[in-house]
Amino acid sequence: DQQVKQNSPSLSVQEGRISILNCDYTNSMFDYFLWYKKYPAEGPTFLISISSIKDKNEDGRFTVFLNKSAKHLSLHIVPSQPGDSAVYFCAARAGGTSYGKLTFGQGTILTVHP
Amino acid sequence: DAGVIQSPRHEVTEMGQEVTLRCKPISGHNSLFWYRQTMMRGLELLIYFNNNVPIDDSGMPEDRFSAKMPNASFSTLKIQPSEPRDSAVYFCASTLGRGVSYNEQFFGPGTRLTVL
Lengths: 114, 116
Known about the structure:
The complex is a heterodimer of chains A (about 110) and B (about 120). By secondary structure, chain A is mainly beta. Chain A has strands spanning about 5, 10-15, 20-25, 30-40, 45-50, 55-60, 60-65, 70-75, 85-95, 105, 110-114. Chain B is mainly β and about 120 residues long. Chain B is globular. The model of chain B has no long low-confidence stretch (mean pLDDT about 95). At the A-B interface, β5 and β10 of A face β4, β5, β9 and β12 of B.
């Protein structure tokens, strides 16, 4: 049972344009959401997060939007740069004594063309 | 400040052999996670520990897989016997938390396992 889904395996955009990566979840106990970025031969690195009490969080070129009623979140990258080309993972954390456990999606490969 | 350290970075072995993957979490972190990354399933959580105690091993695929955390600075993931379908990248991650408040996880560089 895939509780966190990233339905687009890949996304290709032009440098300078907006990249939008999507993520859907099914578990209503999730109260904290994160995006990780992964380059080849490296471990995932934390990018940005959002609490379920918010609907938007910004950090420079990166903005995450959360729509709780739709159980959907998205990551916007504006403007996209070639160095943003990587695999992006959406992750979710349930409240309570989960000890920081995260459930990850399958990942979306983003390619930004110069 | 050293991040999460994993060894070996690459492991090639033959079917039936025992494989041991090692992880040193970030000093002071109290939760440790083992993941497996495959194309089909993305990042799967195999097992995680809190204060060196295994909390949830429901992601461990079979009895061939086992994990230990003898102390706060070391963990191992063992596969015995290994099979070709175990070929994947295995990641270790750690985080620090208290009660129900936890920070983001920090990942190691991974171990690429190939079982021939």
